[in-house]
Amino acid sequence: KRMSDSKLLEPKTIEVTVHLHKLCHGIVFKKKAPRAVREVKKFAAKFMNTTDVRVDSGLNKYIWSRGIKNLPKRVRVLMTRFVNDEQTANYTVVSYVPVTNFKGLTTQVVEEE
Hints:
By secondary structure, this protein is α+β, with helices and mostly antiparallel strands. Helices cover 28% and strands 26% of the residues. The chain is built from four helices and five strands, in the order H-E-H-H-E-H-E-E-E. The protein has helices at residues 5-8, 20-23, 32-48, 57-63, and strands at 12-19, 52-55, 74-82, 91-96, 108-109. The longest helix is centred in the middle third of the chain and has 17 residues, at 32-48. The model has no long low-confidence stretch (mean pLDDT 90).
């Protein structure tokens, strides 16, 4: 069943865990952190159905916090889809959510005020 176009144009916020260890398995050490950023962008583009994905500086700093080759295994992110006034160019902003433990966390749609 295909989602209607009106649903795709609505702003939406989702909190989800991205498993970087799985996405960057087998990548050369010196390319791991840049590849992880690209994989997060690809994940968000597929999940939120937008082509323009912007990574927040806090998320970028967290991915690079242990250097180029020692990635964090997982990262919790908040993906927010924004809609422009002309409703032609939607974009998604991916930001970092600090958590102490990933056990029991599920994908959650965040209700907006």
